[in-house]
Amino acid sequence: MGLVGRARKLLRSDGPKGLAFGLVRTVSQVIRRVYFEVDYCISDFDLRDWEWDSSRPPVEGLEVHVVESEADADQLALCGYEDFREVTPLAGRRLACGAVAFCAHVDRVLVHMAWVALDVDGKRTFDALPYAVDFANGEGCSGGSWTFPRYRRRGIYRHVFGWRLAYLQSQGCTLCRNATRTDNLPSRRGQGVFPHRVIGRAHLRMLFGRTRWTEYPSDRGDA
Ligand SMILES: CC(C)(COP(=O)(O)OP(=O)(O)OC[C@H]1O[C@@H](n2cnc3c(N)ncnc32)[C@H](O)[C@@H]1OP(=O)(O)O)[C@@H](O)C(=O)NCCC(=O)NCCS
User: Fold this and answer.
1) For labeling, which of 56, 98, 145, 202 is most exposed (least CB within 10 Å)?
2) How confident is the model over 114-126, as pLDDT tens digits?
């Protein structure tokens, strides 16, 4: 659908206010294609002596499923759970490359999605940031989280993050590394309750399609 078609659809469905928001979104997306700068913090979650109790979901009826393959995803859909592959078009490719999905449903409706990787091919599918993860030596990584707006601020991200760490631990990982935008308060607060160390900061700058990633190691461990 072209821009004009999308604008008409927005005007019909959300009225002039929706159209105005849509326009602002489109313009900022265009600007972001030309130029943007973002800061990240890189964190390590130590899984060696970590223990966690997944038995108390923050929302009644919340179910978390670990999906390691298309066959798992087919099975979940067959059981009547909303198919996350329809919401995340790249999901099939991610699974094929070894990334593992975490899907949270309430009454079989998808409310949250998140990913982990145990190798570089899997990581690349949901996280293009070039921070190093030593997959060969027991490190895994996490990323690609999304809570549907209606279900935000109910502790679902934090709960599923616990599931992700527990999964990586069950696969033999001693550490989970990730990069989170420093201004992403919900993510940082959600992860912050798990034992971790901020090992560095990074700055991503994109100008006319050329990106520059600069890392600044941290020796404080808490920044
Ligand atoms: C980031 C995101 C996944 C968090 O999901 P969520 O399920 O709402 O998170 P939780 O309910 O587990 O909240 C975690 C913490 O963040 C806080 N929080 C959530 N939304 C917040 C907001 N908008 N402002 C400030 N704090 C917020 C919660 O209160 C909670 O902290 P607390 O228990 O110490 O008070 C969700 O906001 C989202 O999908 N954002 C868009 C995509 C994104 O940014 N993904 C993360 C990429 S790393």
Assistant:
1) 56
2) 999 999 999 999 9
